[in-house]
């Protein structure tokens, strides 16, 4: 893949993708480019912050409250978990258990646990649990990235 950058002070930002066939790699590239413009609002001690979605590690619902976790901060969202999943699923966010969605791009490794669950380790060292109901969705996203697995039986 070649990347060609052209500075043109007269025009707006434009991205052009040339491909031989539309495949999963091209579709992921398109989604990543589109995600640059997607923002989520989170609040911390009453102060609202606009978050880029690629800074979000996971989003969790606890006792009817929704929390957004970044590398080192936690924000509160006024939206429900299902609303955020609807907004973010095309950008690599997948549901991993009943109360949590995760940004697949921050996944570092996956390990099988004894009770048909998976332990996902994120790039910041934090762990989240993937329950068996949601394992097929994770496998779909990770198809072709076998080096993430710590257990061959995954």
Characterise the protein shown here:
The protein is α+β, with helices and mostly antiparallel strands and 154 residues long. The chain has one domain: OB fold (Dihydrolipoamide Acetyltransferase, E2P) (Beta Barrel), CATH 2.40.50.1020. It has helices at residues 24-35, 81-88, 135-142; strands at 39-44, 47-52, 56-62, 65-70, 74-77, 93-97, 100-103, 107-112, 118-122, 127-130. The strands form three sheets. It has a five-stranded antiparallel beta sheet, sandwiched between helices. A three-stranded antiparallel beta sheet has the order 8-9-10, with no helix packed on it. Strands 1-2 form a two-stranded antiparallel ribbon. The longest helix is centred in the N-terminal third of the chain and has 12 residues, at 24-35. It is globular. The model is unreliable at 144-154 (pLDDT under 50).
Describe the secondary-structure layout.
Layout: H1 24-35, E1 39-44, E2 47-52, E3 56-62, E4 65-70, E5 74-77, H2 81-88, E6 93-97, E7 100-103, E8 107-112, E9 118-122, E10 127-130, H3 135-142
Antiparallel strand pairs: 1-2, 3-4, 3-7, 4-5, 6-7, 8-9, 9-10
């Amino acid at each position: 893949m070649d990347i060609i950058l052209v500075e043109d002070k007269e025009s707006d930002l434009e991205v052009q993708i040339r491909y031989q066939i539309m495949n999963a790699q091209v579709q992921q590239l398109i989604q990543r480019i589109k995600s640059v413009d997607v923002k989520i609002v989170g609040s911390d001690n009453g102060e609202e912050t606009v978050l880029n979605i690629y800074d979000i590690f996971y989003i969790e619902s606890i006792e009817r409250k929704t929390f957004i976790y970044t590398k080192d901060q936690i924000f509160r969202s006024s939206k429900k978990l299902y609303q955020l999943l609807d907004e973010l699923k095309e950008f690599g966010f997948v549901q991993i258990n009943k109360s949590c969605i995760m940004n697949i791009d921050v996944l570092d490794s996956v390990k099988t646990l004894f009770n048909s669950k998976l332990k996902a380790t994120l790039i910041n060292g934090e762990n989240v649990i993937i329950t068996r109901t949601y394992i097929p969705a994770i496998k779909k996203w990770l198809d072709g990235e076998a080096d993430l697995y710590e257990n061959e039986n995954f």
